[in-house]
Amino acid sequence: MLNLRRGSTDAYYHGDELYSVLATTDGVGAVQERYDYDDFGVPGFLDAFGNPVAGPATGDVYLFSGRRYDVASRLYYYRTRYLDAPSGRFMSREPFGLWWDTRSLGNGYAYVGNNPASYVDPFGTEGVGLGIQIILDTLFDLTGSSYKPPLDPDPRGARPKDRTRQPIPSRKKCADEDKMREILDEANSLPPIEPIDIDSRLKGFRAVDISA
Asked: Which residues contact 82 (CB under 8 A, 6 or more apart)?
């Protein structure tokens, strides 16, 4: 549970399996606000009794998948880039290259491969299973890191035959930002995997007309 203090007032956040906040309560457990979302996190704001209201009483809040929501811009902050919930896409391209997150199939702006019900993206770089987010969030918060992934030097983005993603070393507890950068540099220095020859895989298959 996350606690937010504004002046002398405390608010306690209650979330679901996606780490999305569903309600806030005060110090005695009385509901202050409720929230609901569409698939990609467009928030709906409700009072304690479930009646729609214009916006959050607490100002900028943590909402969909536990990320901070900016009321003015209506964007979610994902640490390395911003998510536009109405369009279901990030505002900037994948910082590690278009094929870093294989779930997105080369779409550098997609959010968790367009499967927000099954994955979360704590760093704005790739979708991960629901159980791993709390580990990554704890690591990020304990180190106090201001780490930002380097921008892809190729402005056109990486293509499958140029750089295919390698497995990342386990994200162990890092003492500081330099150690985090060292781990990620090690991952990026691994040799590329040979791309799959799709044409050879499809040989022998033929189209079947099922309209008849």
From this structure: 73, 75, 76, 90, 91, 92
- Between CA 94 and CA 97 the distance in angstroms is 6
Q: Which residues of the chain have pLDDT under 70?
A: 1-2, 6, 60, 130-212
The pLDDT value recorded for residue 5 is 76
The residue ranges of every structural domain in the chain are 1-77, 94-192
**Nearest-angstrom CA–CA distance, 32 and 49:** 9
Taking the chain, what is the end-to-end CA distance rounded to the nearest angstrom? 57
- pTM for the model: 0.60
d(CA 66, CA 120): 10
The crossing angle, in degrees rounded to 10, of helices 133-143 and 177-188 is 130
Please tell me whether residue 9 adopts helix, strand or coil conformation.
Answer: strand
pLDDT digits (tens, 9 = 90+) for 185-204: 666 666 655 555 556 555 55
Closest CA to 123 of 168, 161, 186: 168
H or E element, residue 32: strand 31-37
